[in-house]
Amino acid sequence: MKRTGLRSAQFNPIRGRRPAPMNCSLAELNVDCSYQRSIDSPSSRALIKRIAGEWDWSLFQLLVVSRRPDGELYVVDGQHRLEAARMRGDLHDLPCSVYDFRLVSHEADAFVALNQQRKPLTRLDLFKGSVIGGGDTTANHILALIHGAGLTLAPHTNYACFKPGQIAAIGPICKAYKMFGPDVTARALNVLANAYRGEVLRFAGTIYPAIVGTIVDCKLARPADDLLEITVSGLTQGEWADEIARTAARKNIQRPAAAIAAMTEVYLEAAAEDEEAVAA
Questions:
Q1: Which domains does the chain have, with CATH numbers?
Q2: Numbers of helices and strands, H then E, in the chain
Q3: Which residues contact 4 (CB under 8 A, 6 or more apart)?
Q4: Cα angle 40, 126, 211; round to 5
Q5: How far are the Cα atoms of 26, 28, 94, 122, 131 from residue 170, in angstroms, in the given order?
């Protein structure tokens, strides 16, 4: 029988030797500055201090350590954790994965590869973690506002795989909540959701802040949200993106400001037309 799936895939041969887990004393761990990053910058010192002050074994990842031919141990990955342990003074050894690299150049290659493989957490990832952790009441309240608008959190930031009603623009939503409170945040979410109900929210990160800015700058009361929704739905998401780009070029301003300017301009025109229609 022919095997399918992963078993039939073609993989490169496994390289290197299996690491040996062991506890290494802080005194025997060295750092090679020829390829390691400097930890003398303010950001690195702040990170080290934070790790030292909030040391938590449940969050600890093993240091990657090279055992050179002369038996000396050099940290390939984990320099900040090592320095934080030394700063504390009550830690004497650390769990490590020890590899037998033959050359310093092999250590440097591993250092580069390890750092390139790391995928930084997105705002969406961090937000989901805050919600699941349960300790961040603000995150849970924002999630309730998202659900209240009939939207759900997207599983990732690749809009090509989104389902209708999924939203990943958590950064602008959290910013609106912090700056203008839950009412404006919820109103803008509802306008966005209703304007593009049943659609994939490809440009939510651009359109949502524009809705918030229009509500705030025009000092709109809740009844005006209906007209704002009509204004937003009057253009497709792609058309709004194009309009915002044109506004940025015409006014020589950054895209966030251009988004608000473009939507405010269109809304005020619609409001003026609505007033004329009522007067007639």
A1: 16-117 (3.90.1530.10), 123-272 (no CATH)
A2: 10, 7
A3: none
A4: 115
A5: 41, 45, 37, 10, 12
What pTM was computed for the model?
0.69
Instruction: For residue 206, give the nearest of 249, 258, 165 by alpha carbon.
Output: 258
Each residue's pLDDT tens digit, 228-254: 999 999 999 999 999 999 999 999 999
Tokens of 83: 């320095």
Q: How far apart are CA 206 and CA 258, in angstroms?
A: 10
Output the six-digit token pair for 243. 């309009």
**Rounded CA separation 64/57 (Å):** 16
The half-sphere exposure of 3 on its side-chain side, counting CA atoms within 13 A, is: 6
Q: What is the greatest pairwise CA distance in the chain?
A: 93
Q: Is 166 helix (H, G, I), strand (E, B) or coil?
A: strand
- What's the Rg (C-alpha) of the chain? 27
Cα(210)–Cα(235) distance, integer angstroms = 13
Tell which residue, 116, 69, 75, has the closest CA to residue 96: 75
Chain centre to alpha carbon of residue 253 = 25
SS3 64: strand
Which are the contacts of 43, defined by CB distance < 8 A and separation ≥ 6?
none
Report residue 1's pLDDT band, with 50, 70 and 90 as the boundaries: very low
